[in-house]
Structure formats: C-alpha cells, structure tokens
Amino acid sequence: MGDLHLPPAATSTAPVPAVVTVHGSGPMSGEYARNWEDMGSRLAAVGIAVFGYDKPGCGESGGDWTRLTFADRAAETVAAVTAVAAQPEIDGERIGLLGGSQGGWIAPLAANIDSRIRTIITFSGPGVSVAESEEYQIGAEGAAEGYTSEEIADALALYRRVLSRLRAGDAAAAILTDEIHLVGTRAAELAEVTSVKELEFFAGIADFDPVPALEKLTCPILAIFGSDDVLVPTEASVAAYEAAFARSGHRDHEIVVFPGADHGLRVPDPATGRPRRAPGFFELITARLVRTLR
Q1: In this protein, which residues make up the domain named Serine aminopeptidase S33 (predicted)?
Q2: What is d(CA 155, CA 135) in angstroms, rounded to the nearest whole number?
Q3: Residue ranges of domains in the chain
Q4: Which burial class, exposed, middle or buried, applies to 231 when counting CB atoms under 10 A from its CB (0-12, 13-18, 19+)?
Q5: What is the reported pLDDT for 34?
Q6: Residues with Cβ < 8 Å from 23, sequence gap 6 or more?
Q7: pLDDT tens across 148-197, in order?
Q8: pLDDT tens across 9-29, in order?
Q9: In sequence order, what are the beta bridge partners of 20?
Q10: CATH tag for 2-129+209-293 (out of 2.40.30.10, 3.40.50.2300, 3.40.50.1820, 3.40.1440.10)
Q11: Is the Cβ–Cβ distance between 49 and 5 less than 8 Å?
Q12: In sequence order, which residues have a C-beta less than 8 Å from that of residue 276 and are 6 or more positions away?
C-alpha cells in the first residue's frame, strides 16, 4: 500500500517517469514520504510522479519491518517499483529511487536487482557498515547532545560488548539480562540498548557492508551528505563511495557535501537561527532527476 502523487498532465497516453521513496529506519508510511517537504508537488511540477509506500506494519501494510533484513527491504523496494510501474499513467521504464538515511543502503541493492531502476539519489546514506555507522553515531551524537566523555565511553564499551555477543550468536534476551543493571542509564540510551526486539533487529543488519552493492552499480547515482551529520560518518562514507566507483569504473555519479548541514540536510536559517533545508538541496535533486529520467 502507498500514496502516488501524479503530475496533472499524466495520462495513459502520456505516461510520466516516477520515483519511489525508499524509507530510512523506523516506522514510516507512504504519505509521510510523499509529503516530505512537499516532495510530491515539487517533482510533479517538473513532470515526475512520486510513490511513497507503507513499510511493512505501517499505514495500511501488513507485516513487521523490524523482522526484515536489508535483502528483504531491497525486495520490498522492487515490489514497490513493480506496483508503480503497473499504473497506466507511469512509464515503467523510467523509474528512479530516492533513499534517505537507511534507504541509502537499500537503494543500490534494489537497483542491482531491477534494471527498470534508471537512477538513484541518496541523502545521508552511509558508505560504511551498519556497525561502523552506529559506533560513529554514539560518539558524534553523544558529544552534540551534551553527554560527558565518561558517558560516551561507557556507551561505546556497552555497544562493543553487545555487538561482540550478537556476532557470537548469543540471544538478545540473554544479553539484555546480563546488562540489565545498565538499562535505563544514559549510556544504554545512547548505545540504544533498550529492548530485545531492537537488539534482534540490529543483529540481522549489523554487518551489512554497502560497498559490494556500490561496486556492482551501473545506473547513475547522486549521493548527498551533510558535513555536520552526527548520525552518519560523512567523511568515511564519501571516501567509501569514491573508492568503490574507482574500482568499478562507474562514471555517472555525483557526490555532494553540503557544508554545515546535518543528517536531514538542514542548516541554520541566518534570519531565524532555526533549521531549514540547505539552499540548493531540492534544486539539485530536481535537476538530477530531470536529466536522468526525462
């Protein structure tokens, strides 16, 4: 299930290209993705449809997203591509993916499965493993949110213990029982060691490495990052993307880092001090999609 936003001129005799939004982590519906910063209207204005689907267990979709591996999520994305390509107003040979955060890991996997996917745009999509990205987040986000150096060190130590035991095959419930004295502390909160369900989900994705999928990629890709992202290691991710494309010989790629931007590609508004999307962000996305899908 999901939400399809069509340009007014789209008809079965004049089908238009479409982008499928690939969700980040957590529960998300298609309506949220389609309406994100009015993305549907922005792209409809240049003749591109937007399809946002409900993650399993969200909106009107059945299932449970916390039980999915990244391979499952890639298959889910391909299913969304199939669904939107079947609509009479859509040109099924001109489909793109727009993946944010965790969706930046998923989009290349899906594109390597389905040749109908003509282009990818990722924003704040890590170029490193899930485990490495999580460790970076503990340190960077902890510092940004005012955790003490001791609290950050405790959180990192807890995270590494838990990760080691998950890799060894220990049950999440047993791990949480052994660390119960820390549950509810700031260290556990920062390390996101809070429930059996979360640990079980993390165990299934922790060692996912995005590099092989990037090396196999053949379609055009635009990867966007913020220099001040505290959830994703921008410098390491850019280096990983560049190295992967150098090894594979991939040509049609662009990597853009917005100075001062955070994980959501926001910067402080100089007039109000409140966060706003980095100037040029939407224009960059629109121009890229027009070039690669029109």
Answers
A1: 15-265
A2: 9
A3: 2-129+209-293, 130-205
A4: buried
A5: 47
A6: 33, 55, 100, 102, 103
A7: 999 999 999 999 999 999 999 999 999 999 988 887 888 889 998 888 98
A8: 888 888 999 999 998 765 454
A9: 51, 97
A10: 3.40.50.1820
A11: yes
A12: 266, 267, 268, 269
Give the span between the Cα atoms of 156 and 170, in whole angstroms. Answer: 19
Is residue 201 within 8 A of residue 92, CB to CB? The reply is no
- Give the relative orientation of helices 196-205 and 130-144 as an angle to the nearest 10 degrees: 130
Measured CA angle at 213 (ends 51, 35), to 5 deg: 20
* Amino acid letter, 91: D
- Number of C-beta neighbours around residue 60 at 10 A: 11
> Which tens digits make up the pLDDT trace of 218-266?
999 999 999 999 999 999 999 999 999 999 999 999 999 999 999 999 9
Cα–Cα distance for residue pair 252/243, rounded to 1 Å: 14
Per-residue pLDDT tens over the stretch 106-142:
999 999 999 999 999 999 999 999 999 999 999 999 9
Residue 30: band (very low, low, confident or very high) from pLDDT cuts 50, 70, 90: very low
Look at residue 213 in the predicted model and tell me its pLDDT: 98
Are residues 104 and 223 in contact, defined by beta-carbon separation less than 8 angstroms? yes
| pLDDT of res. 5 | 87
* H or E segment and range at residue 214: helix 211-216
Q: Which of 117, 80, 123, 131 is nearest to 216 (CA)?
A: 117
pTM beyond 0.70: yes
Answer yes or no: are the C-beta atoms of 16 and 6 closer than 8 Å. yes
Three-class SS state of 239 = helix
Contacts of 10 (CB under 8 A, 6+ apart): 16, 47, 49, 89, 90
